[in-house]
Amino acid sequence: MTTRLFGEPVQRREDPRLLTGQGRYLDDLGADALAVAFVRSPHAHARVRDIDVTAALDVEGLIAVYTWEDLPERVGRPLPLLIPHPALTHGRTAYPLAREIVRHVGEPVVMVVATDRYLAEDACALIEVDYEPLKPVVGLEEAAHGAQLVHEDVPGNVGAHLVQEVTSAAGLGAAEAVEAAPHRLSFRLDIERSASMPLEGRGVLARWDGSDLRVYSSTQTSTSVRMAIAAALGLPLPHVEVIAPDVGGGFGVKIVHPWPEEILVPWAAMLLGREVKWTEDRREHFVSSAHERGQVQHVTVGFDDEGRVLGLDVSILHDHGAYTPYGIIVPIITSTQLLGPYRIGAYRVEFSAIYTNTVQVTPYRGAGRPQGVFCMERTMDKIARYLGRDRTEVRAVNFIGPDEFPYDQKMTFQDGRPLIYDSGDYPEMLRMLKELIGWDDFRRAPGRGIGIGCYVEGTGVGPYEGGHVQVTSDGRVHVSTGLTSQGQGHETVFAQIAATELGVPIERVSVVTGDTRRFGYAVGTFASRAAVMSGNAIALACRKVRAKALRIAADALEADPADLEIADGLVRVLGAPSASIPLSTVAVLANPLRYAFDDEAARATQFAGAASPDRPPVAEGDEPGLEGRDYYSPIRSTFASGMHAAIVETDPDTAEIRVVRYAVVHDCGRLINPMIVEGQIHGGVAQGIGGALYERMVYDGHGQLLNASFMDFLMPYATEVPHVETAHLETPSPLNPLGIKGAGEAGVIPVSAVIASAIEDAEGIEIDRMPISPSELFELRH
Ligand code: MCN
């Protein structure tokens, strides 16, 4: 049996459970809990004049009705602004229940608790809210005009305005560099709103026993939810536990902490002394969670005869919806990650984050990068078209060379740290991609085109993540880390790391994530950070355990720790395999307190001489047990990269667009599990195809979301997503012990750019907005 598991395509261990209905999602818990439903605003902008709950009080099974007036001061405060930024001069967050003004359809106004959800919904229907409708501002450009305000005290609806500029080596600013360039182009690019849309919506279940609060939440960040709840409810942290059970997808929307429901449900559970649960329905998810992507981008580029970009000026209008709970992280990521694998002469980017009377914006898988990559890759294609050169050649002349790392883009990344690329090999990646898709042999024909898109992605953002590893006397290894899982396969990859580091069969390793009882300090799962952050922390914790195991075994075997190895669960003397001791026995020896009925303990007595009579049973500076905890805190992010190519066919009559081939070359450093990474990329590409061809939030002028159901919001099926051909390039990150970079968002990031590039090639029409439907393509043709 091999114990070298890092890098192998180990089958996902969670799948048998998840695929056979054994998963335990939020709504599988708390069958007897009281149910919560919300009255949500039907108006995009209105003043709440009065709320009459009288009729609802007669509903049989009604337990309680709460409006903002009923909330204690701590609970009723505006929700926290999670990532402040000096440029966010007018950050605004919602109250957990509307206080006076509602600013988008779906904002929670009244909370109803009843014995079941049906009764709670019945009671909601009987509550009369007297709204004074105010004029809503819906379109991004209309809102930027500033004539009508979303927040009375935010002039021009501008939440934030930020300008960043990197001058050229010759000291030219972007405008000067563009002006001085032999060629110039200016154009506008639009990306519409979309959303994460996990299969399982949000949900919260809370139980109060008079002293301790236990909360289950379908979240991407249980430790932060815990801190938020403790703060809002005035409870000491050790008396609050938050557990993320199986989570049916998050894709970004579940990183917000706390959602109003995550405060209100535990508060009601404490007040009522009963278990209380809220499960989001699909319509609620559409109108009251979060969206992303909506941006208008104006680009001016100056370049030379080879296509080298000498100056780039980008101005972005970012639609932030009604609130900024997650700060302005999305447009900051667009601004800084737009540069991709390229060396750009001089660069200036400016964005305004604009409030509109629509659902708030928080990161969705890719988080601002799909917009930035659309911008840069459309730019590369336009340069190639202008110069009559091959699109890959233009990219290649702009690439940062493999010998130029670390490469400083001279900007500040989203975490406030310098934007320095640590490693990569972009020319080699392009060579691999061209070969994989057959770029040079592609036969172009009317209605058949090929497209390309490249990106660089900062992954593994800090500040830290931790891991705890314990070997028990049965030889099992228990790994825990505080971040949560939403389907990424963490139970498998973290077990692979522990099994490799400790030399034990993977079957003996179990992994727990997202349970604050097991691990209290964590940041969460987002920004493709779990593998880098928890992966390295778990490896470091394993190394501590390994060192201790070798020390104890060396005593027992009367050998030097340097002469020992651990393999197949045995600590062995190198070169003398018969001299060995099971790791389970080492775990027994690590604890001076042994139970008489423990078989392992009985076997361990033969090593009793290991304890020296002149030192205490637990030596000073030591701890009982064979376990270790460690944290990984990077100096800065590590930069993954990728290049995608697609072949599309468009129907000459119906303008239907079909993606017939899709190829990906990807570099996430050392692969822990290539099969899982490929699965992540496939899922991301499917999501990206949705964003390129189908998914958009359609608001009318009154701020009503017209397609708030899966009947009307199109998502791709397997029939729309081709087999994704994948190749890996591994340039290890020098920044972390395992050499890993992240992979979880990679698939989605360049897809809109790639599909636009391919349609443009097939049709000879410039594609400057995404998504594009057959009817829009039809119109562009005519
Ligand atoms: N991996 C690996 N080798 C590497 C890098 C990653 O084997 N060199 C593996 C990891 O161990 C992990 C997976 O690939 O199992 C993704 O790793 P990572 O890039 O660290 O991303 P996270 O685990 O932090 O996941 C977050 C990322 C994000 S930001 C979104 S959004 C997203 C995504 O993952 N949401 C998802 N993938 C998702 N997949 C599912 N099924 N559901 C979601 O909600």
UniProtKB/TrEMBL annotation:
The lineage's top-level taxon is: Bacteria
SMART domains recorded: Ald_Xan_dh_C
Q: Which GO terms describe its molecular function?
A: iron ion binding; oxidoreductase activity
Which segments constitute the Aldehyde oxidase/xanthine dehydrogenase a/b hammerhead domain?
Answer: 20-135
Question: Per UniProt, which keywords does this protein have?
Answer: Molybdenum, Oxidoreductase
Entry-linked Pfam families: Ald_Xan_dh_C, MoCoBD_1, MoCoBD_2
**Region (Disordered) spans which residues?**
608-627
Q: Does the keyword Oxidoreductase apply?
A: yes
**What name has this protein been given in UniProt?**
Dehydrogenase
